[in-house]
Amino acid sequence: MTAVAAKPAAGSAINPTAMVIGIVMLIILLGIAYVVSPGLGLMALIGVVIGGVLIGFGVHFVPVGGAPAAMGQAPGIATGVAMLAAGAGLAGLFGGAWAADQGFVIAIITGGVGGGMMMAITCMMVNFVYIFGMGIPAASGKVLKDPITGDSQPEYKSQGTEGHGLPFVSFVGGVLGGVLGGAGGTLIYLELLSLYKATLPNIMSISAAQALPIAVATAGIFAIGMFLVNSVLTAYNITGTIEGPHDPKFKRWPRSVVASAVASALCGLVAILIVTF
């Protein structure tokens, strides 16, 4: 009960100084990419940063309840922020990678659909277990009415809990988070894949066909790693559980976006440097 009743951790307010420092660091990293690889490398890094921002922002939509949710004492899915977000993003990333040959736009859409479907199935099964397995309805402890359906929440919330299950707004938020995460992860993969396909044949003195498997594997490894980095960063920003876009913690997204942009730029720069020198 202590975990359920705990107040948000200190430091939830936006720190303007830290935000400015983060933006300056981002500009410096982009400047380094411009000096090292002003053409394809810089464009790839910009795509990686955008993908990382989509991931960091999308994670805030995902309803995570942690251990209290497992006991039906808090809304959300009974797991951690990083694990759930990474699962949704990787599902989208695999879908987008499968459609990479179909074109840039189609691959991004496919990645978003893959992540959204994973979250939709997960949210549906969570409510199925809560309602038919535990015998409790979905109710939010953050709002009096569902922002989308307008359904009243207090009447269905058990006494002594913060709510339980996944209200409709949390379900929709989870799907949106999966779409953004899947699209962001796919964008990172595609940008790095294009860079490696163009540079590896010359660096390794091999044909394009021989370089393709290496490019695919390397881009996939970096894309998965960057997704995990952004998921963990956002988990620290959320600090605990979150119900979705209606949760007060959702307002913390600006600092997470800046942190994800800087982290993605740093990781992306490393991914570019390995084919530059």
Description:
GO terms for molecular function: tetrahydromethanopterin S-methyltransferase activity. Its main location: membrane. Belongs to the MtrD family. The protein is mostly helical and 277 residues long. The protein has one domain (43-267). It has 9 helices and 2 strands. The chain has helices at 2-5, 16-36, 40-59, 66-70, 81-98, 104-134, 168-204, 208-238, 253-273; strands at residues 139-140, 163-164. It has a two-stranded antiparallel ribbon. The radius of gyration is 20 Å and the shape is elongated. Mean pLDDT is 84; it is low at 1-11.
The beta-strand count equals 2
The major beta sheet can be summarized as: 2 strands, antiparallel
Which structural class matches the secondary elements? mainly alpha
The SSE order reads HHHHHHEEHHH
Strand order of the largest sheet: 1-2
The portion of residues assigned to helices is: 55-70%
- General form: elongated
Number of helices: 9
Distance between the termini: 55 Å
Strand content: under 5%
Give the count of structural domains.
1
Overall mean pLDDT stands at: 84
Membrane topology: Multi-pass membrane protein
Main location: membrane
Subunit structure: The complex is composed of 8 subunits; MtrA, MtrB, MtrC, MtrD, MtrE, MtrF, MtrG and MtrH.
Catalytic activity: 5-methyl-5,6,7,8-tetrahydromethanopterin + coenzyme M + 2 Na(+)(in) = 5,6,7,8-tetrahydromethanopterin + methyl-coenzyme M + 2 Na(+)(out)
List the helices and strands and how they pair.
Blueprint: H1 2-5, H2 16-36, H3 40-59, H4 66-70, H5 81-98, H6 104-134, E1 139-140, E2 163-164, H7 168-204, H8 208-238, H9 253-273
Antiparallel strand pairs: 1-2
